[in-house]
Design a protein that fits this description.
mainly beta; Immunoglobulin-like; 5 domains
Length: 522
């Protein structure tokens, strides 16, 4: 059972905290109704004191990573905003690691009018989900995590102008190609700030029809094409009209179009196309003009040719093609034959072989006295080793450049893996070891911490600071002041130490949980 940890939100809106002032830490129940301030409440609730509905909701989430948030918003509009920060089991936090969402109020080049800092972890009173209300202004905000070891959890939020109702219809234009020839092509385009939802056209006095491709008109005579567009806000433009004339086909035209095809793509030594081939068909007619081009793939139905044909199915293929002019003359069917070959697989599909060796002086129980050195070795007979990585006590994966020396008293887990130049990565492996303090006689922690209870972060946890049997107390094994790469690594170290002490009967499970939570808060 984990006793829930009270969360704290630090929040001051523009106008409530003078420039350069330090925002106060408010308990969840504090500041209710305070002018211009807000405190997080139950999940999904807005901050106290808010009178107008927020124009938007922005959500940040976190998980087990200590190098980046799981998800962040990147853009917003100016105005009152509901901020949700969730660092919970639902978002993937399985370790209880706390995170904060903090707005930067000092770095030049960013807005500094919102001071917000939310601390969340899965064991707090809100189960890691917190809500606050702020007012964003146009510009850029920088946000980051304030917990030590999280310096790379940084992002930027770009805020545009206030959200105004869209009452402007799209701008529509139309062009005609082929006027006064045997066919004409009408191309329609539209633009709109909120986005174009649909475009329609009307040929002569016919029905309005969705516009999906340029409109080709071959009927002889005068024509009018009207077009209009509707944006995503529901505004529809006034129709735009273009007029043109299609000439009568030459009655003396008895010559079919000329049609050719070109096959392109990467070819292997056998002349086959590797992975895919592109068939481009071209047709010309000097008399009445080309009315349509058709293709037939592997004996299937004839279909209109509108763009190059891409074929990627391995095997032999035949693409037939033909063209018809405006006088009704159709060319003889021609075809192109070719074969698609599957891409050759990368010859190197074997991951590197990686091993680790732990060295150092050991006591009768197999523990490493004073320090332990972990040496990782990786080999790859095919493409060669590209990189080796290690993960110490659940921290971030880092490049392995030299043997890892562990001096912190307690149990440790060193994971390791290797990747070759072909991109194959070995399965993760682990070395598990325990480092004990060195010291004369039976006291391995001379001059250690002998206080009656364990202190973490300057706070008394109330857990008895028992002797673990070799002259070292619980506080000595936790060794709060040792150099840990990240705060998360320290929390995991405390978990490792307390798990061992529970197994040895020195601590109860409840006492171990108290120490882990205190480490998370420290």
């Amino acid at each position: 059972m984990f006793r829930r940890i009270a969360a704290v939100i630090v929040l001051a809106l523009a106008g409530t905290v003078p420039a350069g002032a330090v925002a106060a830490a408010l308990p969840l129940s504090a500041a209710a109704g305070s002018p211009g301030s807000a405190a997080a409440g139950s999940p999904g609730s807005a901050a106290a004191g808010s009178s107008a509905a927020a124009v938007q909701t922005l959500t940040w989430t976190a998980d087990d990573s200590v190098t980046q948030y799981k998800s962040v918003p990147t853009s917003a509009v100016a105005g009152e905003t509901t901020v949700i920060f969730e660092n919970s089991t639902a978002t993937g936090n399985t370790t209880g690691m706390p995170h904060t969402l903090t707005f930067d109020t000092s770095t030049p080049g960013y807005n500094h009018d919102v001071s917000l800092s939310i601390l969340a972890n899965p064991f707090d009173t809100n189960n890691g989900r917190h809500t606050a209300t702020v007012t964003l202004t146009e510009g850029r905000y920088r946000f980051y995590c304030t917990i030590p070891g999280h310096s790379s959890m940084v992002g930027e939020l770009v805020v545009g102008g206030s959200q105004e109702p869209d009452t402007m219809a799209p701008t529509v234009s139309a062009t005609v190609a082929g006027d006064n020839t045997t066919s004409a092509t009408v191309t329609v385009s539209a633009t709109d700030a909120s986005g174009v939802g649909s475009i329609e056209y009307q040929l002569d006095d016919g029905a309005w029809t969705p516009y999906t491709a340029p409109v080709v008109v071959t009927a002889a005579g005068s024509h009018v094409v009207r077009s209009r567009a509707t944006d995503n806000a529901g505004n529809t433009s006034e129709p735009v009209s273009v007029s043109f004339t299609v000439a009568e086909p030459d009655p003396d035209d008895e010559t079919a179009p000329t049609v050719t095809a070109q096959v392109s793509g990467t070819r292997n030594d056998d002349g086959n196309y590797v992975g895919s081939a592109i068939v481009t068909v071209t047709a010309t007619d000097d008399d009445s003009g080309v009315a349509r081009v058709e293709v037939q793939i592997d004996g299937g139905a004839w279909t209109a040719y509108t763009q190059p044909v891409v074929i990627s199915t391995p095997g032999a293929h035949v693409v037939g093609y033909r063209a018809t002019d405006n006088a009704g003359n159709t060319s003889a069917t021609a075809s192109s034959s070719f074969t698609i070959a599957e891409p050759e697989p990368d010859d190197d599909e074997t991951a590197p072989t990686v091993t680790a060796q732990v060295t150092g002086a050991r006591d009768d129980d197999g523990n490493y006295v004073g320090s332990a050195t972990v040496t990782v070795t990786a080999t790859d007979d095919d493409s060669g080793v590209a990189r080796v990585e290690v993960q110490i006590d659940g921290g971030a994966w880092t490049a392995y450049t030299q043997p890892v020396v562990l001096t912190t008293v307690g149990m440790h887990m060193v994971h390791y893996r290797a990747t070759d130049n072909a991109g194959n990565t070995s399965a993760e492996q682990m070395a598990h070891l325990t480092v004990v303090a060195s010291g004369p006689g039976g006291d391995e922690c001379p001059g250690g911490d002998t206080r009656a209870t364990v202190f973490l972060g300057g706070a008394d946890t109330g857990v008895p600071n028992a002797d673990t049997g070799n002259g070292c107390t619980v506080s000595d094994l936790i060794d709060e002041d040792a150099g840990y790469p990240t705060h998360a690594a320290f929390v995991r170290h405390v978990e490792s130490v307390t798990n061992g002490l529970v197994a040895a009967g020195t601590l109860t499970a409840r006492q171990a949980g108290t120490l882990v939570r205190a480490a998370a808060r420290s």
